[in-house]
Design goal:
Distance between the termini: 40 Å
Number of helices: 12
Structural class: mainly alpha
Length: 317
């Protein structure tokens, strides 16, 4: 009798994920040769993950935006024209051999960013020149030093009513909302803020963003399916960051979090302890939705050049 997922020990769960990766349900391949090539590539990756010697070293290109340039396109074009995005990545898939496929997910939908007035990035024609070849991160203080208690008390409410209005210009009106926990039996009072024109405009911007991302997903999905047909697997997985980086990268900024390490270390640690289970939960949920086998955690401010060993052990890991 087959065990339920909840009954499996970690080793059994990983083995089951590897099995699903080797033989994905409903996967279509161009022919039997592509199917066998897919299995060989996945087995090669599994061997590496398990620290076994593979038949050869797997090849994964650090492509990021290269397919756009290889197709003689630009970042701005593929951000705003999903037909162009599809053309560029399909050309790359058809003309290069690889063991792992990395799709165009790194290309953000330009109109979505425009309409939401996103503050954390500069992109071609928005904060940087139109022919720029990459994004530029716009570091800033999107959380003040005196707001740690507010974050710690209720991270979700802080994100919705404080943080999002600062990083999305279109969501400024979210500051006018009451916490969802204000709904206690009698709901009418809570919804009064939704009569405001600016709140309604913010909600419409949210829906419009969903529509735009839906169109973008169609192009990304076409590229993913082409790679699958050719027998090129993707590295199933998820992404998260160390809590120090979550706060330091896009909330307090480099200067802010370094000052916090000295001026309010206990508050910083308390906030990171609050965020840690949320980051883990989100990463695991994302990995589970895709039967993922790996979770990427980039090393940002924990690098040797940014902090000492003692600081690393205290604040980072």
């Amino acid at each position: 009798m087959r065990k339920e997922w909840s009954e499996l020990i970690p080793e059994e769960r990983r083995a089951e994920r590897f099995r699903q990766w080797l033989s994905p349900a409903g996967a279509e391949f161009a022919d039997e040769s592509a199917r066998q090539a897919y299995k060989q590539r996945v087995q090669r990756l599994i061997d590496v993950i398990k620290l076994n010697e593979p038949d050869r070293v797997p090849v994964m290109y650090p492509i990021t935006l290269f397919p756009a340039y290889y197709a003689r396109s630009t970042l701005k074009k593929v951000m705003y024209d999903y037909t162009e995005l599809r053309r560029a990545w399909l050309k790359f898939i058809d003309e290069f051999e690889m063991d792992i496929y990395a799709g165009p997910g790194v290309v953000n939908p330009g109109r979505m960013l425009d309409n939401l007035d996103y503050k954390l990035f500069h992109w071609p024609g928005h904060g940087i020149k139109a022919d720029a070849s990459s994004y530029q991160f716009a570091e800033g203080e999107y959380m003040r030093a005196d707001e740690y208690d507010t974050l710690i008390e209720d991270p979700s409410d802080f994100w919705l009513r404080v943080y999002m209005p600062r990083i999305f210009g279109a969501f400024t009106a979210f500051q006018q909302l009451s916490p969802f926990t204000s709904i206690i039996e009698m709901p009418t009072g809570y919804f009064m803020s939704y009569t405001r024109p600016d709140v309604r405009a913010a909600m419409k911007a949210l829906l419009d963003a969903g529509e735009e991302v839906g169109e973008w997903m169609e192009a990304v999905g076409d590229c993913d399916r082409r790679a699958q047909l050719k027998g090129i697997p993707s590295l199933r997985g998820s992404f998260t960051k160390a809590p120090f980086d979550i706060i330091g990268d896009a909330m307090r900024g480099m200067q802010g979090i370094i000052l916090d390490m000295y001026r309010r270390p206990d508050k910083l640690i308390e906030a990171m302890e609050k965020i840690t289970p949320l980051a883990i939960k989100a990463a695991v949920a994302s990995a589970n939705s895709a039967s993922g086998v790996a979770i990427t955690i980039p090393l940002h401010k924990g690098a040797d050049g940014f902090m000492s060993r003692q600081q690393f052990e205290t604040f980072y890991w």
